[in-house]
Amino acid sequence: MKIARFLEDGTEKYGLIERDKVKAISGFPWEGLEVTGKEYSLESVKLLAPVQPQDVFAIGLNYRSHADETGMKYPTAPVIFIKASSSVIGPGDDIVLPKMAPNEVDYEAELVIVIGRTCKNVSEADALNYVLGYTCGNDVSARDCQLKLDAQWARGKSFDTFCPIGPWIETDIDPDNQPISLKLNGEVMQSSNTSDMIFNCSQIVSYCSQVATMKPGTIIMTGTPLGVGFARKEPVFLKAGDKVEVIIDGIGTLSNGVVK
Ligand code: MG
To answer: What CATH code is carried by the domain that includes residue 193?
Structure first.
């Protein structure tokens, strides 16, 4: 099932996508998925970030291939960091290069877990029962802030627009075996599979739930594979006019432009 959040007549709604239609539901998707009867053509509505999360958790260095390219050791437990929830944008929205740090803005294709039930101290075996579904994300990062200037990652990962997610939530995929890729202006920059993750989705949800109470709508970005811009022989950073697409086979394509 695909769950979207969209704007219709100036009102934010959630709905279920069926082929080229979106059928509105009442309330939040974690309260139930009752269709209210109104349906819209998918083309006619503006899709929003599929949730506006209370918290955005993210896992660093979670793909073997990405740890290898950065020359770092595999972590022995998930490395959690936090992005400001105000950095979330939706499909089609622009990533804005921040005035303060416009020169080393990088992309990171990620599978995003969307929590569907309040979640605290859950076991790995039970963890995925607390997940509503999965969406695509881009953990946009100002590398100069993250890696050179600051002793930690909060600023480099939290600029406004640095957390594109979407285009919708898919409820019925195996999150631990999905092809994931990223295209920059049509060129494939990252191409991997979520099976390369060091910690899988059950382990991540269980681990995060031992830290914080995760409310419905909380998202967890699960890390990025090989191919980020800064780790290339000729580093690649985002510039105005670029188009970035995150593609996860079982979900769809999240597409965002880049502006100054
Ligand atoms: Mg990341």
So the answer is: 3.90.850.10
- The torsion angles phi and psi of 26, rounded to 5 degrees, stand at -90, 135
pLDDT one-digit tens code per residue, 25-34: 989 999 999 9
| Confidence grade of residue 22 (pLDDT, cut at 50, 70, 90) | very high
pLDDT tens digits for range 57-75? 999 999 999 898 888 899 9
What total of structural domains would you count in the chain? 2
| pLDDT surpasses 80 at 176 | yes
Q: How far is the CA of 112 from the centre of ligand 1 (A)?
A: 10
Distance (Å, whole) CA 250 – CA 124: 23
Q: CA nearest 90: which of 155, 161, 19, 15? A: 161
Query: How far, in Å, from the CA of 108 to the mean position of ligand 1?
Result: 6
Q: In terms of residue numbers, what domain contains 242?
A: 56-259
Where residue 141 falls among pLDDT bands split at 50, 70, 90? very high
Average pLDDT, stretch 13-32?
94
Q: How far is the CA of 34 from the centre of ligand 1 (A)?
A: 34
Rounded to the nearest angstrom, the distance between the alpha carbon of 107 and the centre of ligand 1 is 9
- In b/e form, how buried is each residue of 112-146, taking b as 16+ CB within 10 angstroms? bbbbbeebeebeeeebbebbbbbbbbbbbbbbbbb
Are residues 64 and 34 part of one domain? no
What CATH number is associated with residue 31?
A: 2.30.30.370
Residue 167: cis peptide before it, omega within 30 degrees of 0: yes
- Examine the domain organization and report whether 149 and 22 are in the same domain: no
Q: What is the model's pLDDT at position 31?
A: 93
Distance (angstroms) between ligand 1 centre and the Cα of 229 equals 12
